[in-house]
């Protein structure tokens, strides 16, 4: 489809083209109270101010619910459901369209433009949802194989259950933070020589701090306890997607994970991008994920085989010396399980999900070293240092390192659907 043209100036190559309209939470110097906004080019449209000045006068569907745009999270808006999200997004697109049928709303309303449109450089971004619970999955097959091969060899790299169900664990929702929030290196218990059976563990700053290139999906429809979400309905329960860095203390994890899985190695910080890209905006970029060579059980069988997204994902590392380079290029298509399958499996026991619950995809890696979404893979767990263009090397992250994820769909520079950035900088561990 040809790119939508706008009367509003949107830079070529912007992640936030008229084809996108992602939602987030902003505050400004003139109003410190967080509220709902959408990103358009290099600006944000303040939906609270837009609403207060009759911006939705031509959209009767949302008028009884306009108070949701004054909320400090997206939970209330998300709870209105996918059909409402869709009409609001399309309406905002029509308001910004070059040939808008509603010029009086914003195009010819310079007063409202001054009140409701702010440069992104001048807004403060906040965590988009109140996250009640967070579950991290392990759906990136290539990452699961690469990591498993290091510890169990290629034959036993994948556990016997891996291709039969979306493996996951419950993470810590309280440490999910918005892009730009510093991440403090955790202290933890680990063995300095894991191969030495009789050696005692130490408690010290993590030495194998890593990033994990993931996507996250937010739930927008609750299910009652005891009532699973059927796989054919699961997609309607997903509001949208963010990029996610599920930071990991590899040495702590290796020592603690038996028998119950990750704990302190994963609870110190998870970074998400600030703007949530709606499921509708991602729909044109759906494609088939990694082929599963086992016959999955009926409760996980999707009607549409195209259920993951063609999202080009990049990882940039900026060292404390200021040198920056791209160290990985992956894609959202490298998943064995989709978010609808994760949700259907999660609720298959009757587990109740709430609006704002977050699901992580697990690390998304391709088959080549340049596509590996973690340093665990790139450095072979520290055995092979990663050479950076600056001449610096990394086995794992050092204090002062900054990791930036970017993700974008499409090839038309006037119709990109992207996520902006997901950024975190490592600060030294606290001293006891």
TrEMBL record:
Concerning SUPFAM superfamilies, the annotation shows: FAH (SSF56529), Fumarylacetoacetate hydrolase, FAH, N-terminal domain (SSF63433)
Cofactors, names only: Mg(2+); Ca(2+)
Q: Which domain of life is it from?
A: Eukaryota
Q: Recorded E.C. number(s)?
A: 3.7.1.2
**Active-site feature positions:** 143
Question: What residues bind Ca(2+), as annotated?
Answer: 136, 212, 214, 246
Which BP terms from GO are recorded? homogentisate catabolic process; L-phenylalanine catabolic process; L-tyrosine catabolic process
- Reaction(s) catalyzed by this protein? 4-fumarylacetoacetate + H2O = acetoacetate + fumarate + H(+)
A single MF term (Gene Ontology): fumarylacetoacetase activity
Q: Does the keyword Cytoplasm apply?
A: no
Residue sites binding Mg(2+) per the record: 246, 266, 270
**Which pathway is this protein assigned to?**
Amino-acid degradation; L-phenylalanine degradation; acetoacetate and fumarate from L-phenylalanine: step 6/6
- Positions bound to substrate: 138, 152, 253, 257, 363
**Keyword vocabulary terms for this entry:** Calcium, Hydrolase, Magnesium, Metal-binding, Phenylalanine catabolism, Tyrosine catabolism
Q: What range(s) does the Fumarylacetoacetase N-terminal domain occupy?
A: 19-128
Pfam families per record: FAA_hydrolase, FAA_hydrolase_N
Q: Which InterPro entries match?
A: Fumarylacetoacetase (IPR005959), Fumarylacetoacetase-like_C (IPR011234), Fumarylacetoacetase_C_sf (IPR036663), Fumarylacetoacetase_N (IPR015377), Fumarylacetoacetase_N_sf (IPR036462)
| Domain Fumarylacetoacetase-like C-terminal residue range list | 143-417
| Classification via NCBIfam families | fum_ac_acetase (TIGR01266)
Family affiliation: Belongs to the FAH family.
Q: What is this protein called?
A: Fumarylacetoacetase
Give the organism, scientific name.
Answer: Amniculicola lignicola CBS 123094
């Amino acid at each position: 489809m040809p790119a939508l043209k706008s009367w509003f100036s949107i830079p070529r190559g912007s992640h936030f083209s008229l084809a996108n309209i992602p939602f987030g939470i902003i505050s400004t110097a003139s109003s410190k109270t967080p509220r709902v906004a959408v990103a358009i080019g290099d600006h944000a449209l303040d939906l609270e101010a837009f609403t207060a000045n009759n911006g939705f006068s031509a959209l009767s569907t949302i008028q009884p619910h306009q108070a949701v745009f004054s909320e400090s999270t997206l939970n209330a808006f998300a709870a209105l459901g996918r059909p409402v999200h869709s009409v609001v997004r399309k309406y905002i697109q029509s308001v910004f369209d070059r040939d808008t049928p509603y010029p009086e709303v914003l195009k010819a309303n310079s007063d409202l433009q001054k009140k409701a449109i702010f440069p992104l450089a001048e807004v403060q971004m906040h965590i988009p949802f109140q996250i009640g619970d967070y579950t991290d999955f392990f759906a990136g097959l290539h990452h699961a194989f690469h990591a498993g091969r290091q510890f169990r060899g290629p034959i036993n790299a994948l556990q016997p259950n891996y291709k039969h169900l979306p493996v996951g664990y419950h993470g810590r929702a309280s440490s999910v933070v918005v892009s730009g929030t510093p991440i403090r290196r955790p202290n933890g218990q680990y063995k300095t020589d894991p191969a030495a059976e009789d050696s005692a563990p130490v408690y010290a700053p993590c030495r194998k701090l890593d990033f994990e290139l993931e996507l996250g999906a937010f739930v927008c429809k609750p299910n009652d306890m005891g009532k699973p979400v059927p796989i054919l309905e699961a997609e309607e329960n997903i509001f949208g997607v963010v990029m996610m860095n599920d930071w990991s203390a590899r040495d702590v994890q290796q020592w603690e994970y038996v028998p119950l899985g990750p704990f302190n190695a994963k609870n110190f910080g998870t970074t998400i991008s600030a703007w949530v890209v709606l499921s509708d905006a991602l729909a044109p970029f759906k494609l088939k994920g990694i082929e599963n060579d086992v016959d999955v059980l009926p409760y996980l069988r999707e009607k549409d085989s195209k259920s993951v997204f063609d999202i080009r994902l990049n990882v940039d590392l900026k060292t404390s010396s200021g040198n920056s380079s791209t160290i990985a290029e992956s894609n959202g298509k490298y998943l064995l399980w989709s978010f609808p399958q994760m949700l259907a499996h999660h609720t298959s026991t009757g587990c109740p999900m709430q609006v704002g619950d977050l699901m992580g995809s697990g690390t998304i890696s391709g088959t080549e070293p340049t596509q590996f979404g973690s340093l665990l893979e790139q450095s072979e767990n520290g055995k092979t240092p990663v050479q950076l263009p600056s001449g610096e090397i990394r086995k794992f992250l050092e204090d002062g390192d900054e990791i930036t994820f970017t993700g974008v769909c499409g090839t038309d520079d006037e119709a990109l659907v992207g996520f902006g950035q997901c950024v975190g900088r490592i600060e030294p561990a606290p001293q006891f």
